[in-house]
Amino acid sequence: MIAKGKNASELFPAVVKNVASKNIEIKKLVYVYLVRYAEEQQDLALLSISTFQRALKDPNQLIRASALRVLSSIRVPIIVPIMMLAIKEASADLSPYVRKNAAHAIQKLYSLDPEQKEMLIEVIEKLLKDKSTLVAGSVVMAFEEVCPDRIDLIHKNYRKLCNLLVDVEEWGQVVIIHMLTRYARTQFVSPWKEEDGLEDDEKNFYDSDDDQKEKTDKRKKSYTMDPDHRLLIRNTKPLLQSRNAAVVMAVAQLYWHISPKSEVGIISKSLVRLLRSNREVQYIVLQNIATMSIQRKGMFEPYLKSFYVRSTDPTMIKTLKLEILTNLANEANISTLLREFQTYVKSQDKEFAAATIQTIGRCATNISEVTDTCLNGLVCLLSNRDEIVVAESVVVIKKLLQMQPAQHGEIIKHMAKLLDSITVPVARASILWLIGENCERVPKIAPDVLRKMAKGFTSEDDLVKLQILNLGAKLYLTNSKQTKLLTQYILNLGKYDQNYDIRDRTRFIRQLIVPNEKSGALSKYAKKIFLAQKPAPLLESPFKDRDHFQLGTLSHTLNTKATGYLELSNWPEVAPDPSVRNVEVIELAKEWTPAGKAKKENPAKKFYSESEEEEDSSDSSSDSDSESGSASGEQEEEGDSSDDSSEDSSSEHKSDSESASEVGNKRTAKRNSKSKRKRDSEDGENENEKSKTSDSSNADSSSIEESSSDSESESESESESESRKVTKEKENKTKQNINPLTKDVSLLDLDDFNPVSTPVALPTPALSPSLIADLEGLNLSTTSSVITKQVRLKTSEEKSRKTSKDYNPHIMVSTPVFVPVKTHVLLHRMSGKGLAAHYFFPRQPCIFGDKMVSVQITLNNTTDRKIENIHIGGKRLPIGMQMHVFNTIESLEPEGSITVSMGIDFCDSTQTASFQLCTKDDCFNVNIQPPVGELLLPVAMSEKDFKKEQGMLTGMNETSTVIIAAPQNFTPSVILQKVVNVANVGVVPSGQDHIHRFAAKTVHSGSLMLVTVELKEGSTAQLIINTEKTVIGSVLLRELKPVLSQG
């Protein structure tokens, strides 16, 4: 019934019952039915959700995939959280088919609820690391739909995608190639050199291989192609032989947009091969060839005969072939082409015949040697029986005669005689225009033509009437004796014409050419105005303007920007750092390393720089084997963080600038930074210990490396011995408590682990006596020794920081400008059986860890009995999120209240932290979701530093919007109050009254968040946010805009 288009929605309840059937074929049919009618019957469709959730756990991968496909196709907003959870689970499925369907579901969920973008990006990032060819195409398509601007997600996977390309299914190949084309245009410098003009390229096509090689060698002296650029071009070349036309077209556009001009020629043969396909494919391919042939004639000249028109071709194909033949025409082949065109003019397809005449005109314009030949041929066509052919010939001849009018008086006379027979308005208007322009060369014919036109003026087309008026004006100025009365008669007819354009033109001409008392100064120059020299028309290809669209796209076909079109960026002047792409190859190699000697060879030894590694090796006399293991460990560490390239560069700078006497200090600082990296990898291991073997190996290798330096301090050896026992829950909890303290009190800068754009130091008051007392009260055995150790290291740490190029002493974390008193309900007293809980954000640095957000929770006992053993139970946190819980509250008296502190590392996202708040008898599920403004710490910086950092965070790192509000809402005090109420930012002093600047850094990564409010004229202002964290920046922009707009 569905296939026949009949309405089967009435059967919905009966069909839904069969969703639980164990017969796979019945299930498939039910799934198809549900996808079709779920939106119409939302309430009933929700009844089957539980069945789909069970099916997602089915041992059969086909059922799991089908359930996910149907679940994501039911476009009911209320089930978005369920869909999100299902996609996350499916993305980690063992079956690549299920993971592929998870990638498809991402796009559906994003179209249903764009607010889920941030969480979907995390799933995309995870799936991009998938090594299955089945998944690659689907996840890249999801990437293009959800976050095409997040090029940083591709860096790690670039080489893997290039190598997998040949084995991916055809649909995926097309998507990946288009994405990699955009990527290449942003990451590599242009391989096109200015001296490589069109003529040089044409020679390359015909030259021998030796000649071409010599030219290529000369170019290489000034330009060297990036190996990754060459990898992409080399790996896509075999796909030119694909049976799929879309794949061949995708590779062709990639070569056109990113390969050296000397190598583009290889795509021509493959494109010509596609002309044997059906007419739809031919149409697209010919359009792209037409665009290419304008710039690169030499590519398609050998295949000239492939573009000859066949009698069976539809009109759209014929006109495109004509266009290409015109582009390829030159002195050598024009005689052949003109003979071909003579045949086309006789075609029964009148539209095609007219297009051929236009083509002949363009050839005559472009090739001066055949101009006369073409003109004579067109004059012969004037005697053709077909009126359309004659009319088109007249129009083209008119354009050709404009180039050399003095030589062709006879042709004009011949065309004047045709006025009696031609009825097409455009042709009649063209003849009249020609006679008017050349009225002095045909003084006897022109007045007679005007007389004939005056007779039938009222019955002519509007276009012809305008040209009759122009002809009369020109003859009045050049031959007033014969035509004065005739012109006045025509002007009188035009004065009362029905068309207002003609009436308007009549009044204008009368005032200009007929002198009277009211005539102004213009009438003196009437002859110069009407008989001025007109520039010859330029006959250009209609495909000339299409080259700014990416070839093979819908926008290129339509010659207008289509929805969803992603423009190709210009080549960068300087290539971005290529080391960001080193990651994926290293990870692939590491995956196949057997768990043995290589993993135990101290992999973190060579992390910072080669110069440091040489100093270390000279002191510790490490052998070559351990050094090679260190190298693999260094590269493995690069795979865990996309920021490591900048770390390496800063550490190299540091090692160069320090003297040999400070080697000991450097080692100490390096061990502390390694300890921090170890904690990060072990946190990831605790989240998913089985599936993330690379993280666990990092943690193991880091702990082994650290344990080799027991002589440094007692506290460090204790924490290292604990890190080797990660499988024991009790010791793991203790380690998690110790590590944040070490990080916080050591005063390690975030800029040791982040790029240049986040040079933000931590607040110095972290070592106040009250804070040390608080830390000692946390019942940690090694706390006091850790504090003593880190205080002792403070001087050496500051020295190493000051030599780093990332360090900026002018940017410091400051105290909050404003702390809102707004509280959020964590647990309502009705849901909590008398226990009520509220939380708020005090906007203070968290004492439990420098990457955590401080949260204060107030617990109230609203019952008449004591509530005992209040504590945090099970935690359901997103991957990477950490939480430091408060100590167990033994009892809370009736009507009593207590405030406790927690620390949550939200990983710079607004994801919800879900956990259980438990008492002696019950457990309650609660959630904490941070406003984006609470993920920031205020930063104090000068206006000069602000502008410098803002200049480094432009392009994709900048978002802006226009705000409209009453002028009284744009006073400095009002703007300050509104901004700091939404976000925990610091005020930057500004030397301009109309610009207000605020600065902060993200708590987790330390990325700068720069906010600018620039007042414009009237009641508008521009809000600009610059940050590397584009997702947080856009969310903050959405929250600030309505606040600043309202009164």
Structural class: alpha+beta
Q: How would you characterize the largest beta sheet?
A: 7 strands, antiparallel
Average pLDDT over all residues: 75
Helix content: 40-55%
- The fraction of residues in strands falls at 5-15%
Distance between the termini: 57 Å
The unreliable regions are 194-206, 584-807
Q: What is the count of DSSP helices, taking H or I runs of 4+ residues?
A: 44
**Which radius of gyration do the C-alpha atoms yield?**
38 Å
The beta-strand count equals 16
General form: elongated
**Oligomeric state of the chains in view:** single chain
Family: Belongs to the adaptor complexes large subunit family.
Protein name: AP-3 complex subunit beta
Biased composition (Basic and acidic residues): 598-609, 721-734
Biased composition (Acidic residues): 200-211, 610-626, 634-649, 707-720
For this entry, give a set of tags.
1047 residues; alpha+beta; seven-stranded antiparallel beta sheet; five-stranded antiparallel beta sheet; membrane
Task: Report what the structure shows.
Residues 667-678 have a biased composition (Basic residues). Residues 740-911 form the AP-3 complex subunit beta C-terminal domain. By secondary structure, the protein is an alpha+beta fold. 52% of the residues lie in helices and 9% in strands. It contains 44 helices and 16 strands. The strands form three sheets. Strands 1, 11, 12, 13, 14, 15 and 16 form a seven-stranded antiparallel beta sheet that branches. It has a five-stranded antiparallel beta sheet with strand order 2-3-4-8-6, with no helix packed on it. Strands 7-5-9-10 form a four-stranded antiparallel beta sheet, with no helix packed on it. The longest helix is centred in the middle third of the chain and has 25 residues, at 663-687. The two termini are 57 Å apart. The model is unreliable at 194-206 and 584-807 (pLDDT under 50).
